[in-house]
Structure formats: structure tokens, C-alpha cells
Design goal:
The chain has one helix at residues 27-41, and strands at 2-8, 13-18, 48-55. By secondary structure, the chain is α+β, with helices and mostly antiparallel strands. It has a 3-stranded antiparallel β-sheet with strand order 2-1-3, with helices on one face. Strand 1 and strand 2 form a beta hairpin. It is elongated, with a radius of gyration of 15 Å.
Amino acid sequence: MQKADIVDCDLYSFTRQMKIDHATNITSEITEYAYRLFKENYNWSKTIRSIGVRGQIWSLISIGNR
């Protein structure tokens, strides 16, 4: 899971996330996903104050496997 938090110069903020089909710790790959989220969701009308990027690993545990 990749997540990007964007804040513009008027302090308007929003968060977007996307699912990645594999785990990664490669900085350039994480950066590409974050930039893609930014480009697809920001309208470029205001100056950017900050961008935060987070990754999260989701683990599914089957109840029958306890």
C-alpha cells in the first residue's frame, strides 16, 4: 500500500492511496508510485507546501490457520 499526503500553500490537504501488487523497499520505486499518485490527483493550481509519503504492509491471517 502506498499513501501520499499533499498540502498546498492555503493549507488545503488531501490523502490518496493505491495498492501495490508486491512488497518493496526500493526508494526509487516508492518515489515513482508517490509521484504517480500526486500527478493523477493534484490540479496544479496552487503551490505545494508539503508532500508526505508512507508505505504500509498488510498481512492477511486466515482464521482457519491459527
